[in-house]
Design goal:
With 528 residues, the protein is of the alpha/beta class. It has three domains: 197 residues, 3-Layer(aba) Sandwich (Rossmann fold); 69 residues, no CATH class; 197 residues, Nucleotidyltransferase, domain 5, CATH 3.30.420. It has an eight-stranded mixed sheet. It has an eight-stranded mixed sheet with strand order 19-20-18-17-14-15-16-21, with helices on both faces.
Length: 528
Amino acid sequence: MKTIDPASFSVPIWILNNHIVNEKSEPIEFRNHLFLFDYLRDTSKNICAKKCAQIGGSVAENLKTFHLAKYRKIISIYTMPSDSDVEEFSKTKTDKIFQANACIRDSLKMDNVFLKQINDTFVYFKGTRSKAAPISTTADRLVHDEVDRSDLGIIDFYASRITDSNYKMTTLLSNPSVKNVGVDLAWKDSDKKEWFIKCECGEKQFLTYEDNIDEIGKRFVCRACNKTLTDEERRRGHWEPTGLYGGKWSGYHFSHLMYIRHTAEEIIEAKETKGIEYFYNFVLGEPYSAGEMTDFRQAIYDVWIPKSLDTPPFFMGVDVGKEKHWVIGSRNGIFKMGKCESREELEAIITRYNPFTVMDSGPERIWAEEFKKKFPKVNLCFYRKDKNIADMVSWGGDKGNFEDSKNWGYLWIDRNRVIDACVYDLQRGNFFFNLSREDLEKFILHCETMRRIPEDVPALHTRRYVWDSTTGVNHWFSAMYFWWLAMKHGSVKVELVSEAEGRPKSLVQITFEGQQMIDLQDLFEKNE
């Protein structure tokens, strides 16, 4: 009687029996990656994974692709957005995994960047930027990695490459981008499996940011009893469908909330510093489409309250132009707005409220610089486009070194990501308005000109989303997100450091009163 090797039909068993390691030569384990166990066992024809970043999905698909080639002779085409992506992916991940594991290395008969031969079965690695890419290659299985960053028209062409196969298998995995595109479209036609965990109170739940993150306590909590969820409770979950049975795709949703290597504090920090689009796509593994909310009127009415917000400390946002449009608020929201032409009018307002202020640096740069010198709590804002996952806001002086101290009173922002985050807080009622009916109507009219629209980036063969005004009359909207920046920054302590050793630290403190020198005698006494 022929003995069947369990490793030949189970990817997880094969991984464990052969002590497979990843591209860093670290053993692949399922204790902290239990969510990958059933995913790797899934033999469905159509699989989609709506995933966060750095969850182990690409490594899992590399190993599954090899296993299917070796034991079932399934020919796969593995795509990445571009040929350069394929080259980088193959050299830094696939090749390192294959070469680090003897049981894989021994089966490789051909090994180059775009083609692997495993015994007598081929695995092709291709990009999606050329219509010629799918031509003349037939396969049994398609794996589209980072499908949302790929050319979706070329992805459709690839479907013709498996029409004559007996298997006709397709896997989509990607950080999502926007709703109803790429992996999110497949997810909606799937069984929508979520990672369910169970609290000791008996409540069964899959984790969401709104229900399970305590931002004040910086902890994971049960949505029913508010008890702190342990890493063990997060780890020991199971996949359970939340959609209709009979969908085309076997769907999985991966997020950092289910991965115990990510703490609640780290997830909260990502939300605050990386921009809301990045947070949704790469941390929560969810699509983000702020531009779908065009009803600013209703959103603002929903957060209008009769209660006074006139409680210090105060924060101010100023949009500079021929007329200076401004808003003033507290930590809880905006209670006053206006506009003025003269410098004296604006000075009078700032003198009255003494607010921590963010002001547009242009178009009157010289005027703004003079204003900053007179009022130390005024900060000038400059626009920039951040790359990849850089922080959406950089405040001068925050680095805590002597050279950076020259940048006090300046900040640099990625405008689109800042607006995304501000609108996100507005949508969720994280700040309020206490304006008169007349002022509220004026404010809403400026907000209603704003749209979040797609913009093609030809050099990168991709698309990004930008906020634009249909009329150019959006000044109070701009003042709002400047206020939001000032309010979010709060009070920060910064050290002035010199290369000379023995100098006392913490000579300068930035507070709501501006830049203040600490008493040196008091400081030396504390450092003795």
